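pasting input
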Amino acid sequence: MVKIEVFGSGCANCQRLEEMAKAAVVNLGIEAQVEHVTDVKQIMAHGVMATPGLAVNGKIVSKGRVPSASEVMSLIANVLSEEEA
Amino acid sequence: MASKVLARSLDRPAARLVIGLAPAALVWVGAYIMLRPIANAITYDLFHLSHDTRLGSAVNFFLYDTPKVLLLLTGIVFLMGIVRTFFSPESTRRLLGGRREGVGNVAAAGLGIVTPFCSCSAVPLFIGFVEAGVPLGVTFSFLVSAPMVNEVAVVLLFGLFGWKTAALYIGLGLAIAIVAGWVIGRLRMERHVEPFVYEIAVGQLDSAEALTWSDRAARGIQAVRDIVGRVWPFVVVGIAVGAAIHGYVPQDTMAHIMGEGAWWSVPAAVVLGVPMYSNAAGVLPVIEALIDKGAALGTALAFMMSVVALSLPEMIILRRVLKWQLIAVFIGVVAAGITIVGFVFNLVF
């Protein structure tokens, strides 16, 4: 099970990224759990100083911006293929 | 020879980007030059409206100003999107960490312009700064400058009032950010920061992304999509309202309400602006029409600064890390700065 976390305050951009992450999971056909983390202590612990942040299996892949839909897919796919290697 | 130089420059990604963007830049310049003739042709030839009628002047105002502001916005937001790829909250934090007040306030206000910032991430940013040893007052200089001196506000001022007003806005905005931050630093308000802020463990912040020039250009395009895509309806509606006032509200009506004569107009504009939460695009065209009808420029600028720099939602977000005493001081100091700027502006112009 892949773990995808969106770090954000629940702002509009953060919600957009969450939706995109969910869509990416469907498009990639992987089994993943998408979680929206709003606790500021946890956000800081992951080193995210600019929201929204995106992490795949605990690894931060993007922060401070909303990547495009295709970029979200490749960011997730990259981490998974790195893990397999 | 020339082709050799060209071939060599094509190896360099930056040069390739410039060449790739050249057609877009040409179209942009061409469109900008054609704005006035096209607006005139549509108003006077196609619609057969006369210069002297109210309707004619309102329609011409709208047809010229709307595409002009949108073009300027697209160009500048794209360029700023690229500039911002060279900065990050992490690098700004490193640059400001342990810096002394004074120099630190100036640096923070300047970095506030170029660092990507959204008021929704004010809390993690604040914690990150404090954790890196950025003095409280220096952090506030950043928090004032980042939202106030933004490209949307500057472009609108430039497009609607000319470069002098835009330059003054940048200069005075920076001055307010520097002085307000310095004052807050002098007041020694550290104990009014929520204690948990000092105990938070901050994770690895490194984010040295290796960006190519085409990545940077893509970020610029994304910034255009995000920002222009969000503010264009405000610009169109705002200029339409401005055009209506321009054409129909008689001169001097506003002068009585917001004119230079009434001393209370500046503080009133600042107080009105605080609870309002809008981007500069939402209020600026209305301000333009007000000034057109005799309201004082300083009053109008103070209103805009107050709307953009001090917003209720941001204060509510910051309440999670700041006690209310510090929030009150923050609002008070910045509002006082904006009021002084408004008065000075009205006196000088």
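fyi Chain A has a mean pLDDT of 89.
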